[in-house]
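Q: Convert this sequence to structure tokens.
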Amino acid sequence: MAESIKSGSNRHLDTVLSTRVRLARNIDGVPFPVRLNSVEKQSINIKICEILSLSEQKLQAIEMSSLYPYEAISLAERHLISPEFASMSEGRVLLLSEDEKISIMLCEKDHVRIQGFEEGLDLENAYKNAEVYDEILDSSLHFAFDPKLGYLNQNPKDIGTGMKASVMMHLPALSRTGAMTKLSATSMKLGFNIRGSYGDAASVKGDIFRISNSVTMGISEEEALENLKTLVLQIATKERAAAEKFVTDINIKDRINRSVGLLQNAVLLSSDEMMELLSWVRLGALYGIVEADPHTIAKLFTAMQPATINVLAKQKLPESVRDEIRAKTVKQALKS
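A:
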């Protein structure tokens, strides 16, 4: 097994790309956002921003209506907001920390959705980071809470802890050997969901999967996090066992090396083709078949998405220009 796997093994960076914990909250006595007009939503947003401005936690406030469509989509590509939050800007505000470890969506399906992020497998710190803002806002706003049901949310599936924890995993061996279908069905019976990186079960790109809890009632936050962590560790172990056997196949080694060659020589590179080829290269890098940095490749998965390239260029670019920029950037990243 490559040295890159051993380094940072406490967070399982070979298989786990990132961790997110989201807390859904609503203000007691105030209708859900779906029943509020734009003026009422704005009032809530202003109040929340004022509360946080008085705390030591400094966040950038972004009016979603002030963004170009590609800027909003880029935030979703980078998993900082949900696709739903990006699709409708009226009355919505995003609060974002400078290091992008905290993202708070205001007036989406709920009044407040606090998200804590960490690299690799780190559910505990992602939750602690989000909890800080939960406590600050709850002390002033008083979130809707029922002693029997827990936190009250627009979606009945979120009632209880109101917490959705998820872990992004790169699982090329399990994916390519067809094991994910059975694993997903088994996990669902245990109260977990396994979907594509953007929440779509039918479309998985780059062999990247999001594993998340689906049970929010009758269980504490700590228990939910521990259960998810246990599942993730089991999946990571299965991936490593499958990969060690998978990469011994001469056809797989050939596919990995061909992927490197294509990326090193491509003049145009689409987003989907990039995800496919980089997944192979990252697998090869982890197991010493090719020389590449798995961490750099993981960053490219999101940094070279269409809207994010537009943001880097500060303008909406034609598809062919984006494909050219993507090809050049990936080629340079692999060289360095």
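The longest helix spans residues 221-246.
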